[in-house]
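Q: Sequence in, structure out?
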Amino acid sequence: MAKEDDIQERLINFAVEIIKLCSKLPKDRAGNHVAGQLLRCGTSGAPNYGEARGAESAKDFVHKLGVVFKELNESNIWLEIIKRSKMLPLQDVQPIANECTELCKIISTSIRTAGKKH
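A: Exactly. Output:
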């Protein structure tokens, strides 16, 4: 499997885990708000990465990877909010937060590498 396919697969799996996590959030005003925000940013990385893979130029590739990074970074913040507010048990949130951090590092490195080539 190509490195890009592995990253795409991880981003899809991350989106699936975000969906599962959001379904566990409280069904109150705060839970619904956080779920909506996290669903939006947490599920957008995979399709945006797919767009990056089909980029028309190196500049376009870097730009689209930047969108993926921003969405993952926002997801990390919402996950931290869930942890600090104790909306869900830590053991439900920490594994996906760890994966989000790892994906941020991978995408950040890809942006730097692609930027140097450009």
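The CA atoms of residues 46 and 59 lie 19 Å apart.
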